[in-house]
Design goal:
about 230 residues, 10 strands, globular, Uracil-DNA Glycosylase, subunit E, alpha/beta, two-stranded antiparallel ribbon
């Protein structure tokens, strides 16, 4: 089933109870769902688009362009089959703000319903959590792998993890990416031990897209007519 909407920003019309928030942005029928933490970490309050307004977000969006997940980066990225959103879309102010400046646990809990609604409405084939908190949440809520997966982002960066209906590919927080010193290879790859984090992500996404990552079944044989009926 496809979502029918021409809206790129906040296609599901979510309206959380906060003064400022960064809604989801992208293709409502995306194959790839990129999941950040909150605006205080990954930006977006100025333009209303996740991963904009910070150097780390710019690095991430540029890597997604190189990997073919975005047609264009910038303050209003050109998307095709990719969706960007946050675990906690509201700005962490007032009662939502903890002592460390991040949202409080209760505020994360309150915002989870909005995030979960987006995940299930989009039903992307691949979830790409960005940073430790998003990765931990996705592994705990959408896979059975959390109990046996150490959240070491250097190790998990660009690594495929099979979930319960989703394939998960964690991304190290782009604010902590390193450049590395490996020379790109002619096929676009690089020495894995010396490659920068952007190159590692691009190579992982290129490899993934060369496989049959869409976990679908054709149920058309069970219904009248000759048209395929693909479901996850």
């Amino acid at each position: 089933m496809k979502n029918v909407t021409d809206r790129v920003s906040n296609p599901f019309g979510l309206s959380p109870e906060c003064d400022r928030f960064v809604p989801g942005y992208g293709d409502a029928n995306a194959d790839f769902h990129v999941i950040g933490d909150h605006p205080g970490v990954h930006g977006g309050l100025e333009h209303g688009v996740p991963f904009t307004g910070t150097a780390g977000g710019e690095r991430l969006l540029n890597a997604l362009v190189r990997a073919g997940l975005l047609a264009e980066a910038g303050d209003a990225p050109a998307v095709d089959s990719t969706y960007l959103s946050y675990l906690h879309m509201c700005e962490a102010t007032g009662d939502r703000r903890g002592g460390d400046g991040a949202p409080t646990p209760s505020s994360y809990g309150d915002m989870e319903r909005f995030f979960d609604a987006e995940v299930r409405a989009i039903a992307a084939h691949v979830l790409l959590p960005v940073g430790e908190r998003a990765t931990r949440h996705v592994l705990e809520q959408y896979t059975t792998q959390a109990h046996k997966t150490a959240i070491e982002m250097d190790e998990l960066h660009g690594r495929e993890i099979r979930g319960s209906g989703w394939l998960v590919l964690p991304i190290k927080d782009p604010g902590a990416w390193t450049d590395g010193d490996a020379e790109p290879e002619p096929n676009g790859g690089a020495d894995a031990d010396r490659a920068g984090d952007a190159d590692r992500l691009v190579e992982a996404l290129d490899t993934l897209q060369a496989t049959d990552y869409r976990r679908e079944s054709d149920l058309g044989r069970f219904i009248a007519g000759s048209e395929p009926y693909m479901v996850r």
